[in-house]
From TrEMBL:
Transmembrane segments: none
Polar residues composition-biased segments: 164-179
Taxonomic source organism: Hymenobacter saemangeumensis
Name of the protein described by the UniProt record: Outer membrane protein beta-barrel domain-containing protein
Residue ranges of domain Outer membrane protein beta-barrel in the record: 23-219
Length: 250
């Protein structure tokens, strides 16, 4: 049901974009850049013995182009096409016991996925403050590829001395629904969700702060890592601070 609503919202946005422009419609376009705080939210309903936070955030950047269609009133339509990197970090600061070799270890894994993202937001500007923008809408993102980097430090269970340090990286495989890596190595083919936020229009400069939540699980963590037969689903979350410099086309 959520996917159908998101698809309908995107279709409505494209319909507005393709509709003949009326006399009062103004079109603006320009570059958009900003910073992204990305994390992952876990679907706890599939878990029986896991109640901790699934991840820590990572901090990245995004860039692309924005278009704004002003319809002559309080509403405007704002689609963007962005290159954005999302992901999350899983780390254990306290040494955990590994039953396979009797050692204790700490680990740090960083997941990063590059997306081509299309958000389509409906923007409302009140009469009392036309420079204020309040917006919301769906987004669709296509993963272009990703990596997971990891480091592990093993300790002697008796002396607590460091015995081994390991580092490495691997590619995330696109379209895989059953990852082989204990913390997930497969990506879904699309990421869909909702975005909302507010901003200010200062002449040609547009500044916005937004938050988004993905409804489609982009990565699944393997149940064996959590001693459960279920596969908890991870949906991506972002907070973005963006700036765009817009030029009037019409």
């Amino acid at each position: 049901m959520k996917r159908k609503l998101l698809t309908a919202g995107l279709a409505a946005g494209f319909h507005l974009l393709s509709a003949p422009a009326q006399a009062q419609t103004e079109i603006f376009i320009g570059p958009q850049v900003g910073f992204t705080r990305a994390s992952a939210g876990v679907n706890y309903s599939v878990l029986s013995n896991y109640d901790g936070p699934p991840s820590d955030p990572i901090y990245t950047a995004h860039a692309g182009a924005m278009m704004r269609l002003d319809f002559g009133g309080n509403l405007s339509l704002q689609p963007s096409l962005l290159f954005v990197r999302k992901g999350y970090r899983v780390k254990t600061l306290e040494a955990q016991y590994d039953s396979r070799n009797g050692a204790r270890y700490t680990s740090d894994r960083r997941f990063g996925i590059n997306f081509l993202e299309l958000p389509v937001n409906l923007v409302f500007s009140p009469d009392y403050s036309p420079e204020l923008q309040i917006f919301a809408g769906p987004y669709l993102a296509i993963p272009l590829g990703g990596t997971v980097t990891h480091s592990q430090t093993f300790y002697d269970s008796q002396t607590n001395d460091i015995t081994t340090e390991e580092q490495g990286s691997q590619q995330l495989s696109k379209g895989s629904a059953t990852p082989t890596h204990p913390f997930g190595s497969g990506m879904a083919s699309t990421d869909m969700g909702l975005q909302a936020g507010f901003g200010f229009l200062l002449g040609r400069l547009q500044l916005q702060l937004s938050a988004s939540a993905g409804f489609s699980p982009i990565i699944q963590r393997h149940g064996a890592a959590l001693n459960t037969t279920a596969d908890p689903e991870l949906g991506l979350r972002t907070v973005q601070l963006s700036g765009a410099y817009l030029f009037k086309l019409k």
